[in-house]
Amino acid sequence: MALANRIKVVGDAELSRIHEETVEVLETTGVEFQSEEALALFKSNGAEVSGHRVKFPRPLLESSIESAPSSLNLWGRDEVKRITIGKGQPHTHVEPSNGCVLTQDMDRGRRSSTMADLVDFFKLARWWTGPLPMKSAQGSTPRTQALQAG
């Protein structure tokens, strides 16, 4: 994935800290799973299973990360409707998922999200087809004008 297509939210030091603290939680606290099939799979691959709780030793986590593919494809019903995530990704993908707890905008800054924000995020994701639009010196781009119109 080209550097220009990546959104960097945290620096390398912060990312390393997040990784190390995540490993600590997965090693010491673990995660609860309700699926007996999943519990058996984790146990057979070296995880510590106690009841429904699974703890992941660092070597298992590291080997899982190393064996993960560099990219994956998400396919739509129409084979043409496919997006690549990871290596070879042509542009940033916007997918609002379940919405945001917090929203930040140019006018009001960081604040709690509202239902209107969720609707706006879905509009943005549905509309999104390429690289981030840039605001020109003369004002909004045609794409951002369409968004602002609702």
From TrEMBL:
InterPro entries noted in UniProt: MttB-like_sf (IPR038601), MTTB_MeTrfase (IPR010426)
Name of the protein in its database record: Trimethylamine methyltransferase
UniProt key word Transferase: yes
Domain of life: Bacteria
Species whose genome carries this gene: Desulfoluna limicola
Family designation: Belongs to the trimethylamine methyltransferase family.
Keywords: Methyltransferase, Transferase
Database matches in Pfam families: MTTB
